[in-house]
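User: Quick sanity check before I run a bigger batch. Here is a single chain. Can you write out its predicted 3D structure?
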Amino acid sequence: MALQLSYLLSLLLLVLLLPYSTTAQTSNNQSLGSSLIAQEKGSYWASPSGDFAFGFQLIGNGSYLLAIWFNKIPEKTIVWSAKRDTLVPTGSKVELTKDGKLVLSDPTGTEIWNSESGNLGVVYAAMLDTGNFVLASQDGGHLWQSFDLPTDTLLPSQTMSLGRKLVAHYSERNNSNGRFQFALKTDGNLQLQTLAYPLDYWSNTAYWESGTNGSGFQVVFNESGSIYLTAKNGSILTTVSSNSVSKDGSIFHDFYQRAVMEYDGVLIHYVYPKSSTNTSNVWSILSFKPPNICEITEDIGSGACGFNSYCEPGEDGRPNCKCPTGYTLIDPNDVMKGCRQNFLPQSCDEASSETDQFDLSEMVSVNWPFSDYGRYDGVTEDWCRKACLGDCFCAMAVFGGGRCWKKKSPLSNGKKDPTEAATKVLIKIRKDNSTFNPSGADLKKKNHSIVRLILSVLLGSSMFLNVLFLLAAFLLAFRFKYWKLKARNPYPVTPVMNLRSYTYEELIEATNGFKEELGRGACAKVYKGVLEYEDRKLVAVKRLNTMEREGDMEFNAEVSAIGRTNHRNLVQLLGFCNEGEHRLLVYEFMSNGSLASFLFGGSRPYWHQRIQIALETARGLFYLHEECSTQIIHCDIKPQNILLDDSFSARISDFGLAKLLKADQTRTTTGIRGTKGYVAPEWFRNMPVTIKVDVYSFGILLLELICCRKSFEAEAKDEDQMILANWAFDCYNNKKLDLLVENDEEAIDDMKRLEKYVMVAIWCIQEDPSQRPTMKKVVQMMEGSTEVSVPPG
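Assistant: Done. Predicted structure follows.
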């Protein structure tokens, strides 16, 4: 009780003294109008002791992060950053404006981030010795402070209130948002959680929690070096980390401290000696949570490590992610992405027998608990082995105590487990590097047998006649409705399921009279709208130039085609308006704008973001070409037609130039469509146009994503660099790919993937359409499931 009272009094004293601590640093206060410029060896705003600094920290070459860091240690360890997902270029500026806002802008003056503290009475800014950067009023009160908006780090004297969280870095060298968080939920429960990777939402299951629903109020990191959760009355509910270095409080005076939500899911309390002049010193671990990160077990997501890998805890509490026999890392630079089979999987073709081509490799003391699809009791190990080898879905089997579990890929929640020593894991691997491809005759035979089976079942049932009757009635009703629509409208829209039909008046109201324009094209303008009667849902309303016959044809193509599409990397069509001369389409709103703005907007996006956008765009095109009910050629793939949603995932938009193919068509001839710089050569040669025109455009787009520049730059510093495709080809041939990503250390560190993606792009932009791969093969090459051969010279 006395200990809790002591903590409460310390916290109360800290709160009372905070306003005065700012005014005591008058000589370090920054007045309204003060600013800093992002440049090498640029200035910064230091705390009175010089322990902390606020300013631009160089990340790689030519890119900066607005941050706070420990200024007296060689590593300049970052403890806070603004807009952490966005690096800014040289010449960017942060300014304390006259109205009291802290504003970050790029060299063109475009605002990137602001503190949202305008007109609150801010008169100066100060970097405090606690590591807190504040915007203060005349009497020293904190009107805005970095301590209220933590990134991945807590510092002594910092608190974390309900609803606040620490989000880990993406990787060791990437400061953007990652896959783990330490969060104080609004219900008072303190939790460690995972992002359900590779999905895009936080798991509902915590891998560590305080169990304080309804009572937790605030996380406190006190100056004595203890981190704990308190109730509203100040009593301690649970301790996250206690000071075990010194009992007299000297840790605060002798050591720097920080608590970090690390990129691999471990919350670590670090210390660093203040007085040391030894440049080889590193941050030492005082404590960590959870005790064993590998114990993460979730029904959604991959677990502590990526899919098809297993976790082995290290002495420092960090996970060591490893691949089982027969598997290799998908990305050696990011072990969290998991592993893939390094052999061709077993075929499920009934006409083939591959059992003799596979064997089972043994492992012990390891398990993947959530991948079972079959369990058998009272069997022998030999039976278990044969059952897995004879089952094409079985990636591995686990045998122990007379029981056999079959497991399928992808394997999740893998972990090293000494308690499983008596259990054998039998991993299916290929005996050699041979591959298996079923012949066309075999596939045709299989398809015929399936058709015969279905027909025999249907014809053997009286229900079949009822189904035929209902189908005929539906078709008659459909034809009648179609005739009515055609009589009313010379360009009828094909009826499509799950689409809302809006009136023109509704869309005038939603867009406030078409007030805010988002963009425009040759035959349409796009406006921002709000659907008042649908929970104020934000939408993008595309208004077509309806007087043109071409525009009407475009409208019909979009409604009938997009209405039947359903893919996470396509912009979703919500509804339409077909009223008199008015033709409008209503799409979901993409909050992060176009890829063109993201890629060419001044600050360079992270390498991992660019390659993810490239892969997502490829998947969307693959769907349009081969997986949707009516094959669609987009015909205008370019950065302006790739939009980014809330999580910066790529969504393909603008099917206005799409050319639809019937099921029995493979190519079509039409007028030139598309945008200069992305148009395939066959458009200009009166040649048949196939899906390969999209492959060509994607190849150009992929090079732009790799290099962070446009396909044509008239003002390039070297004439050889003006046309990106030619320059990329020269760099590849001369083995100078680093020139394409100059000053991008993250990309240079990932040189193997960089080379692979450049090779894929070169294949895509081959002049002969027949030499270009399909988008399906492009996706496979980018994912690593298919090797990329050397492109033609």
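The domain at 19-149 is CATH 2.90.10.10 (Agglutinin, subunit A).

User: Great, the batch can go ahead then.
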